[in-house]
Write a structure and sequence with these properties.
single chain, 296 residues, alpha/beta, 9-stranded parallel β-sheet, elongated
């Protein structure tokens, strides 16, 4: 592991790092250069390196302002790479074009298992491209798309992908402006999915109807074990209680606890149900809960 994060390396460092990674003798497995202002040029240099490197398994490149140009270069390298397992690109403003390029790379790459695109200004078209790529991808296990602008249309594309995808086990869609329509689309896809284990829908605008449809899903889906609906709406009774349940149980609302809840009941009536679902020990722990940290 080479950790160079938060060192203000600047744009020139990306080219030097890329050159080192392309060297035939390079044996580095993990590289962390997050928060270094490498810019688009740095993204391009590292993209070229990915096309030739055979040793690197994890690349942390978050918060480097690589933009669409840098993301497209990384995608081109990723399409030719067979060794990288984790690629973290949070907070890089890659937009729809960058997301579409990475989606295209996922069609041919059979090695990448985790991709983080958190906080990247990705909208509906970027979400649609990623959805199409997921339909046939068999390697990606975790996809982080939190704090973007996918909206309901982007969620519909991902819901359609979940019908066919046989690999993804964790999906984060937190803070994407999703409503009950998105919940319905995801529910529809998950009725035919047997691999997704964790779904993060924190800080969206899903109301009671969407929460109920997701709860009903658990009676027919055997793989989904962690469903996080915390803070999805100020007006929805069930999600407000889900906030307390999430804090009381770090593993989030589990299938067992969600199945016991009557989401039609008012928030005050749900509190005792949550305590019973979580167990007395976990309910007592709710009094001293700490802050919830978003996974980037």
């Amino acid at each position: 592991l080479l950790d160079l994060s938060a060192n203000a390396l600047g744009r020139g460092a990306g080219e030097r790092l890329g050159g080192a990674l392309r060297h035939a003798s390079c044996a580095l497995r993990e590289l962390d250069v997050a928060r270094n202002r490498l810019g688009a040029a740095g993204g391009e240099a590292l993209g070229k390196a990915l096309g030739a490197n055979t040793s690197l398994e994890r690349l942390q490149l978050s918060a480097n302002a690589i933009g669409e140009r840098g993301a497209c270069a990384l995608a081109a390298g990723l399409a030719r790479n067979g060794g990288l397992r984790e690629l973290l690109l949070a907070s890089n403003a890659i937009g729809d074009e960058g997301a579409a390029a990475l989606a295209e790379a996922l069609r041919s790459n059979g090695a990448l298992a985790m991709l983080s695109l958190h906080d990247n200004e990705i909208g509906t078209s970027g979400g649609a491209a990623l959805g199409l790529a997921l339909e046939g991808n068999v390697s990606l296990r975790e996809l982080r798309l939190g704090r973007n602008a996918l909206g309901d249309e982007g969620a519909r594309a991902l819901g359609a992908a979940l019908r066919l995808n046989v690999a993804l086990s964790a999906l984060s869609l937190r803070e994407n402006g999703l409503t009950d329509a998105a919940a319905g689309a995801l529910t529809s896809g998950l009725r035919e999915n047997g691999t997704l284990y964790r779904l993060d829908l924190v800080f969206n605008r899903i109301g009671d109807s969407g929460a109920r449809s997701l709860r009903a899903l658990l009676s027919v889906n055997d793989s989904l074990d962690e469903l996080d609906l915390a803070c999805v709406s100020r007006r929805a009774a069930a999600p407000r209680v889900a906030v307390r349940a999430r804090r009381a149980a770090p593993a989030s609302f589990s299938k067992e606890s969600l199945r016991t809840l009557d989401t039609r009941a008012p928030a005050t009536a749900l509190a005792p149900q949550v305590q019973r679902a979580l167990g007395q020990g976990e309910a007592r722990a709710a009094a001293g809960v700490g802050r919830e940290h978003a996974r980037r």
